[in-house]
Amino acid sequence: MFSSHFNDVLGTLEKTAVARDRQGGHAAAEKALLRDAGLLRLAIPREHGGDALNWPDIYRHVRALAAVDSALAHVLAFHQLQVATVLIYGSRQQQRLWLRRTIDENGWWGNALNPRDTRLQALPRSSELAGGYVLDGLKGFCSGTRGSHYLTVSASVAGHAQPVLGLLETASPGIAVKDDWNPMGQRQTDSGSVQFNRVQLPASAVMRDESAEVTAFHTLRNCLAQLVLVNLFVGVAQGARRQARDYAREHGRPWLGSAVERATDDPYLLRRMGELQAQISGAALMADHGAALLQQAGERGPGLSA
User: Which residue, 161, 121, 152, is CA-closest to 137?
Assistant: First the structure.
C-alpha cells in the first residue's frame, strides 16, 4: 500500500525518534524527508496537482508514521487537516490559490484554528480598506506552526459567538511563532503558541466570517480532527506492541515455572500479547470504519445534511 520511498523514510525516522523526542526542538531535517517523499500532497485534489488520497488511506499513513515517530505523525496529520479545512471552508478561488501554492512551493501548513482559545481578536476593517480584519492577540496549541509556510486561523469578533476563519502566510508581518511547547512526550510537534500583532487579514483570505451560516458539511472538520488523534493513538499502540514483541524475542526470559525454554513460548506472555493484538486490531478496524464513513459524508460536499 505504501510507496517504497515512504517505507524508507519510516526506517530512517525510527532510528532517531527516541533521541529526538528526549531532545525536543524543531525536526527540520526529518520534516524535509517527509516533504521530499511527497507526503504534503496526499489530501490535495488532483485538479490542484495533488494525489487526492481518500481519508482511510491518509489515516493509514498517519498510523504507520505514528508507530515509529508519533510527533512527526502529528505534524503530518495536522498538515492534511489544514488542507481539508481549506477544502471545507474555502471558496473555489481560495482553494485554487492556496492549494496550488502548497504544491508549487511544497509548503507545510500549520494550525492556528483553535476556536476554544478566544484570546485572538478579529477587528473588522473599514470598507475603505476593502473589508477584512485586523488580528490581535495570542492563539495557543498551534500544532505544526513552527517551520510552516501557511496558517489556518480562527479569531473572535466582539459580540459574536462564531469566530472568523482565515488563511495567512506564516511569515506575514506581525506574526510571531513562539517556541514555548513543553509537553511530556511528543516534543517535536511544533505546537507552541502564536502571537498576532495587528496582523492584516484581507477579505480575500477570509474563509468564513462571524455571521456566516454553519452547515453540516462544515462540521466534518471536527470529525477529521478527532480521527487524527484516534489514528495517532492507534499507531502508537501498534508501534509499542511491535517493540514489545521484538524485545521478547531478543531479550525476554520465560517465567521460571512456565516449563518452556523461550520467552516467546511462555503461555502468560502469549496471552498478554494476544490480548494486546486483539485490542489494537479492533481499534484499527474501528478507525478504518470511521474514516470510511467520513469519506462518504465528505463526498456529498456542501449538500450534506445533518
Answer: 121
Q: What is the mean pLDDT of residues 241-251?
A: 95
Per-residue confidence (pLDDT) for residue 236, from 0 to 100: 98
Distant-in-sequence, close-in-space partners of 274: CB < 8 Å, separation ≥ 6: none
Under the banding of pLDDT at 50, 70 and 90, the label for residue 129 is low
Using only C-alpha atoms, the chain has a radius of gyration, in whole angstroms, of 22
Instruction: Give a three-class secondary structure readout of the chain.
Output: CCCHHHHHHHHHHHHHHHHHHHHCCCCHHHHHHHHHCCHHHCCCCHHHCCCCCCHHHHHHHHHHHHCCCHHHHHHHHHHHHHHHHHHHHCCHHHHHHHHHHHHHHCCCEEEECCCCCCCCEEEECCHHHCCCEEEEEEECCCCCCCCCCEEEEEEECCCCCCCEEEEEECCCCCEEECCCCCCCCCCCCCCCCEEEEEEEECHHHEEECCCCCCCCCCCHHHHHHHHHHHHHHHHHHHHHHHHHHHHHHHCCCCCHHHCCCCHHHCHHHHHHHHHHHHHHHHHHHHHHHHHHHHHHHHCCHHHCCC
Write down the mean pLDDT value for the chain.
96
